[in-house]
Amino acid sequence: MNLNIVPNWLRIILLILSVASFLPQLQRIWCTKQFTGLSLSYVLCNLMSATEQFTLLFFLLVNQTEYTDVIQKTTGDWINLAQLAAVWMLWLLLFFLGLYYPSNQHSRERKVFASIMYIVLLLVSIVPVIADAIDYYLVSAGEDAAYRNFGLDIFGGYHYGYIHPVMTLVGIYAWFPQNHELRSRTQLHSLSQTGLAAQAVIFALVAISWTMRTNLYDSDLPDLPFWATIPEWFIYVWWAAVDNMIFACIQTGLYFKIRRHEQFSTDHETQPLLAESASESEE
């Protein structure tokens, strides 16, 4: 069953668009020199989700050397990894900006706590896979010892079975702190409405593309019915498609919430003017 039908040129376009969707938000922060209007918890939640997505695909493509018949390493797979890496690094940049720039909602203690939480995630996600890759490809020169495979099985089992489902919930939770931030503000300040709209559309397309850009089996197994491939599809594809769609839905919800808030503010500003005009006409 081959679901790798998205051409590489389209993957590259989606990668470029994904990077571009962050630019309005980065520009807004750079111009305002503050982080007010953006919830640090919202950024942290999305950063943690992006970190886990990058970790899983890096693990499959670089660390997982035992089951080469599951996912074939093609140029498209490395573009997929570049997609996740770019999004992860951009969220990391936003997180650093949140730690650096002032906001009356983010105390120093809160920033320290957020930093500690992310460091803990790094120690159980990216750090182990990077360390294993360095050891396997540079130090051990490709010697695939039994203890390494055992460690990889434990790592994969914990991430697929426990850590990643939690990170999916964390991605959903990102809505709540940012929604609270919007409710407590009368102005957007550092939050880019253009960035929200762009990410809502682009990451919805990215999510759809993830269902069609990964090899599940090689060409030696062409006659398997679709139902037989569902478990592998669930393991190797669902997390990218679902997580990106969740993010797109959250950005969509935040965008329309801002639009409703602006409309509500406009109506309230207009009503006193209309009342004043009516009283003047009566006089």
TrEMBL record:
One of its GO terms (cellular component) is membrane. InterPro entries: PQ-loop_rpt (IPR006603). The chain crosses the membrane at residues 6-23, 35-61, 81-101, 113-138, 158-176, 196-213, 233-256. Keywords: Membrane, Transmembrane, Transmembrane helix. It is a multi-pass membrane protein. It is found in: Membrane. This is PQ loop repeat-domain-containing protein. It comes from Aspergillus bertholletiae.
